[in-house]
Give the backbone structure.
Amino acid sequence: MFDILQLIPGKKKLTQSGWHSFNAVCCGYRGHKSDRRGRGGIRMDNNNWTYHCFNCGFKCNFTLGRNISKNARLFLSYCGIDKEEIDKYNLESLQHKDLLDFTKVKKEKKKIEFKEFYLPSDAELVDVDNPKHQKYIDYLLKRKVDIKDYPYMCTPDAEGRQNNRIIIPYTYENKIVGHTSRYLDDKTPKFINEQQQGYVFGTDLQNKEWEVCIVVEGIFDALSINGCALLHNTISDQQAEVIKNISLPWHTKKVIVVPDQDKTGLQICDRALDLGFFVSIPDWDENVKDVNDAVVKYGKLPTLLSILQSATNSKIKIEMQRKKLDKRL
């Protein structure tokens, strides 16, 4: 069968996320400026492959045993392959049709597991009717999160700092797999985490019918919009797998990464694009540094709309947004 990487002109570079990047061949044919910054990407799966241009947005895929699709034919023509040769490749592909059982071909989730974890023995659910819980309730209301939407916990009868914290359980497939404590005093650290490697907060908040999965950095960012939180400003390989499993079929469900609007937060943009995700940097006021700040200032729905409207996978647009932010920081 034909080797797609050999048909693509120019140099190619294999990224950590498994994409072969190169100068995209489609942009000039689609009314865009020719790519000179390696925005084209091929992801291989044995003889099958997926192409995505992170500049003009063109994408296609090929599965051995099936007809070459219209977009895949266009892509091959952009690589300089004539129609007769493409027809020949199509016939070669169909010769493998008997090897496929199309009723069973289905992309399955890669099994990801986390060890079950126990919460502090004296932890109790935050209760709006309990006078001892008022300071925890006041803090959650200040952050504009619904107290009834998540099982926030506290330890009001503990000694020292421990009676001045909100405990947020980490769950995965509805099992407790860790937690974070957000302390309400002015001391540092503000957060103390019990977190397993590769964990992404908020997977159990996602609805399989949703067309978008929004990925943020902080836990209150996620809680305020029912998103997922990385809990830091990078996306590890393990976390990338968790996110893709949430959003399967991941190539049809849009994953939007919303970085914090500071210098460290913006570093996540390139990694998100390498993974095939979208990035959103909304034009918020200078004092709004993250999603939760935006929810507090604008409300949940306007914040979600601004994220969706600003989402892009164009490196040029993202670079322009980053430069605009850099001038403010």
The chain is about 30% helix and 20% strand. Residues 315-328 form the longest helix (14 residues). Residues 102-107 have pLDDT under 50 and may be disordered. The radius of gyration is 23 Å.
